[in-house]
Amino acid sequence: MLALPVLLLLALFAALAISSAAGNSVTGDEVAHLPAGYTYVRTGDFRLNPQHPPLAKALAGLPLLALDLDPVAATPGWEEADEWTFGREFLIGNRQPLRRILLLGRLPMVAVGLLLGALLFAWARELWGYGPALFVLLLYALSPNFLGHAALVTTDVAVVCFTVLALYALWRMVRGGGRRYAVGCGLGLGLALLAKYTGVVTAGLVAVLAAGAWFLDRSFTPRRAAAGLGVIFALALLVVALGFGAPAGLLHYRDGFARIYADANPRWEGFLWGEYSPTGFRHYYLLAMLWKTPLPTLVAFAVALVSVSAATPRRRVDWLFVLLPFAAFHAAGAFNPANIGIRHVLPAYPFLFLACGAAAARLGRARWPGRAGLAALCVWLAAGTLRAHPHYISYFNGIAGGAEGGIHHLDDSNVEWGQDYWRLARWVERRRPSELAVSAFEPLAPSAYGLDYRSIGLADVTRPTPGVTYVAGAHHLQRNSLFDDWPGVRFEWLRRYRPVERIGGSLLVYRFSIDPADEGSPNVVYLPPERWFEDSIDQLEAILGRSPRFPLARALLAADFLDRARWREREGDPEAAFLDYVRSAEVAGGPTSTGGGPPWAGDPAAELRAAVDRLRPALEAAALAAPGAYCLDGTFERAAGELGPAAVALLRCLATRPDDLAARANLARTFRELGLSTP
Amino acid sequence: MRDRDALSARVYVAARRWGRRRLRPTGRTLGTAVALAIVLAGAALRLHRLAEVPPGLFVDQALYGLDAYRIAKGESFPVFVENPAGIDSGGREPLFMIVMAGVFALWGASPTTVKLTSALIGIATIPVVGWAASRFFGARVGLLAAALLALSRWHLTLSRIGFRAILVPLWVGLVVLALSALLRRRTAGAAVAFGAILGAGFYTYPAYWSVPLALAPVLGVALWERRRHGRRARPSPAASAGGAERATPGDVATGAAAPASPRRTPRALAALAALAFLLSLAPLLAHAAGRGGDMLARVRGTAIVGGERAGAPAAAPEVSLRDNLQRVAFMLHLRGDSEPRHNIPGKSMLDPLTGLAFLLGLGAIAAGRLPPQEGRGGSRDDLAARPLAAGLVLLWLVPLLPSALTHSAPHALRAIGALPAVCVIAALGLDAAARSVGRRFDRWGRVAGVALLAAAIAAAGALEVRGYFVEWAGRSDVAAGFTRDLPAFVSHLSGLARDADVVLCPYLYESLSVRFLTLERDPPFLPLDAGAVIAPAGARDRVFVCDEPAMNALLLRLYPEAKEAGRYAIHTARTGRILRVPAASLHARLEERDQELVRHFIARIQRDPSS
């Protein structure tokens, strides 16, 4: 009877995780991990993806043995050991559908998640009793971070599971358990090391916790500690040696460890709450945990911390085993420059949950207000997690403003990892947009999901085309640069516009209109034409300020001025139109990295020449109203280096003083400097 | 060996003495010596290299300096300093400038004496906050709080700048001290003093407004607790005979204690305090009524409520508030003010050790582990424990609101009111840690506890001092933010003005900093107007100082004999030129067409200066 709630909670975890797994498209690392895992178990060859240990990948590959898949050797990328090419071909071009391969590969990860839940319950029960242990299991089973990442073929949840196994067994050993617990700890540690290189932190923790236990509890003698640690580390090394392919397993491990940052982009910059840093942020993971952990869990943790001060001497060892790993994994995170997702500190979470058991014990012992509070926390947690289903990867709590606000705080696998393409495909099928443009994290090209689309380019980013349906990923919207060679080119849409719709947790839909009839419509972002041009010019000028030789940006800016000039001319503002014609010619004639003209079809100089003829009567008519002043204005603007305004003023000046030779000479000089023939 | 034993025994005895909860006369002497040392250390840090760090003269410093100069000259004694027409920032509270006027009267008006005003206020704040903390939490916590404040980089930075926000921590300390006196004496004088000080704080800086807000609930709860205590346990006549020394919180309500001087009921005291508060505030209120609300222009201009981000309705105000609240919450430990003038960008406002002590202090408050009542320095002005803890937490949280509710959060100036409470909470954390160590290790525990405190304070101090004098003072953005080269530049121009007429571009001529740096000298500079260029009189060379390319081009066209006497880059990114026109050339008559051109140029520059 007592087992029933546990089984129900584990079943709930499995149901939520599997349904999320079934709906999620291929995420970032899965392109390499799942196919590599299949090759490990099919061929025993570990060449693909050595920068991550093989255990989790191999587990994911096991169910695929039951499928009739293309031969490994015949798949492109295998010979060259190019895991990304191989991975894409394996997933897209295989004789089995992508969805089937992916779901089967993800199921073992869910099983690892279930094992982790069971371990947590067992440990929490011994620490705090049955009721608090159920609470701990509830926190775990409804944790969006575990539901999200246990549904993916990655190494993150596996290392957590085996870390908990190792430290739980060590705790039992310290508490007077027999040698079998040293064996259990050694196995757990070996498996953790085989799951992810973060396992080295677990190895350090095993040694430090044993020493700490001896310090706090003298019944755990140095002799016992030394003997136990000897068994543990010997066994762990044996597991690693066997697991990475005997007899050279340890060498493989060492080589792989040396390539741990093989996938890192050297131009990548960490993003945290509006700031970018190439070296990351020390407090990144602390804030990530604050924003991505459900608030009821944080409340329970705060209550638990108050209980620490009342710990009995015997309890101190327990708290050491709960709080030290939590702190250690955070400390490791603080020195990890790769600020790419909460998943890197997932190993800290089980210990947070275990600590929360103390809160449950404390509240459970209290009278009805405490118990009611505990029940309220459970309901609050369940409501929040179920509401987030199945978009667990992009989950954020209320402090961050939910998933909608979270994208302003963090990026990468915290928000968008390629998980929503099937949802996008369904959305497109329903809505049938006339033209779809996409810019999002692409583990696989969107066409793999049957999407007919074009990529969002710089022209769309700065001056989106009305009528086009734009789908942008939350990660891309926050990236510090969309072009590796031209830093600082990024979307400013989050700052400037509100999305009209959201697909899944990570894709934002934008549609723009410059038609006044659409003002106030919730289905489009209405931009008055003036602002439409201004936003673009503003962004492009900033880009050129940072990268003056970026030819595409220069060409687009010239086009912006030209288009605005035409629009202004149509609107009956000849002076402003003329200025834009001049600016367009100026920008188009500026420096480019190619040395030749910009990659743009128009001819701003020709447009300007034509505009001079077209607009001169209108400019002259305006000038007649204030004779004389324009000659001085022209001289002034020329001296200040403003050629466009100088040309306008001098043209007007000559309309009223056709015999002003100085103005005529200045105008001729201005036109020459603009690269035009004398009017 | 014997010597070592004797030494350790002496250290032990000294530590024991200092650590005694109830300080005996010898302990008091030691405590006074430590307090004096802390104040001296704080003073040394605030005065060391004051002329060079921070460098230059920022425009706000100059603005305050000019206000103070007018006050010192007796030209005005304002209730509220209005801005000149055209500057829409709502004016300034005058108290800081009044203090500065006193400093000017003693040491003259200069960039250093502007900063000295802050430094003196900052130095005065250290003992006041320490004393106020000791009234409620004991001498040891008071000393620790004073030491943490003395070494705080946040307070050190603002103590050396010359901004009026530095008055807020001092006023928080004074208000709490006055409250302590009121609770202890319960006399009419104490009530009047409390009300007057509370009201006078409104003449310091808008961030102060949060302080009465923080205190109001505490006072309410304290009075309620006293009333409750009074009903529950009336003291016996014997206890009453013990007099004020042993008065319980309920005494105020019941009037049971035998007072040495006439004591009032809480209601009477509250009425007196409110009256004094209103009287001290009355001039400002009267002025505000006359201004029709314009005094709040600055507050309105910085508030996030109603502020929308550029463009489409992308950000609702509540999003900004949530964001601001988080940024303010993390300012102490993770990321502080990003303005280089106020803080090292990217750094937290507290050093890691003080930050940790602050968290320990919060933990101690949450766990109810405040110093034992008998250990609060022998004072008798205890509030009940809960309102005391709540009051301290409120005095930390509520003064953060001015930063949380305005743009550019976290803002070191707008949140400065929280600093005294932050230091006291951190001191409570250190005290709790020391007491914990003391309990655990018994005989040597006190020595270990004192050593722990000393080590923590020394390490925190070293981090903060290094952060300020090495890291912050060496930054180029700090130099740029304070226009480091401006005083030397103005001095150079003043040198030129000895044998030439120096004509400045409008932004330089109208610069408050330049105006302050040339106080009490006959205006040595001329404004760049048509007269200065077209019809120069006198037999002196004329030096034109301008970074307007068009203007310089014009001058060179008008006066080809002009020689470049130097270049400069002040305020703007553009390089300006110093053009010297020989006197002989100036007398050349300009053609009428050129004169028209010059007037047009000048008008353009004055209308639309590039800076």
Task: Please characterize this protein's 3D structure.
The complex is a heterodimer of chains A (679) and B (611). Helix content of chain A is 61%, strand content 4%. Chain A is mostly helical. In chain A, strands 3, 4, 5, 6, 7 and 8 form a six-stranded mixed β-sheet that branches. In chain A, strands 1-2 form a two-stranded antiparallel sheet. In chain A, strand 6 (501-503) and strand 7 (507-513) form a beta hairpin. The model of chain A is unreliable at 591-601 (pLDDT under 50). In chain B, helix 3 (59-72) crosses helix 4, helix 5 packs across helix 7 (153-159) and helix 17 packs across helix 19. Chain B has helices at residues 2-19, 25-47, 59-72, 95-107, 111-137, 139-151, 153-159, 167-185, 188-200, 210-232, 237-241, 251-254, 266-291, 297-302, 317-329, 352-366, 385-397, 401-404, 419-441, 445-472, 476-481, 486-496, 506-509, 512-517, 530-534, 549-558, 583-586, 592-607, and strands at residues 500-504, 525-527, 541-546, 563-568, 576-581. In chain B, strands 2-1-3-5-4 form a five-stranded mixed β-sheet, with helices on both faces. Mean pLDDT of chain B is 82; it is low at 233-259, 307-318 and 374-382. Chain B is 60% helix and 4% strand. The longest helix of chain B has 28 residues, at 445-472. The N and C termini of chain B lie far apart (73 Å). Chain B is mostly helical and 611 residues long. The chains are: A mainly alpha (679), B mainly alpha (611). Chain A binds chain B through residues 283, 286-287, 305-306, 309, 399, 401, 405, 408, 494-498, 525-527, 531, 535, 629, 632-633, 635-636, 639-641, and chain B through 309-314, 319, 322-323, 326, 330, 334-335, 363, 366-367, 548-550, 553-554, 596-597, 600-601, 604.
Largest sheet of chain B: 5 strands, mixed
By DSSP (H or I, 4+ residues per run), the number of helices of chain B equals 28
Which term fits the overall shape of chain B? Answer: elongated
Strand residues, percent of chain A:
under 5%
- Give the averaged pLDDT of chain A, no decimals: 89
The multimeric state of the shown protein is heterodimer
- Sequence of strands across the biggest β-sheet of chain B: 2-1-3-5-4
Shape of chain A: elongated
Distance between the termini of chain A: 96 Å
What is the average per-residue confidence, as pLDDT of chain B, rounded to a whole number?
Answer: 82
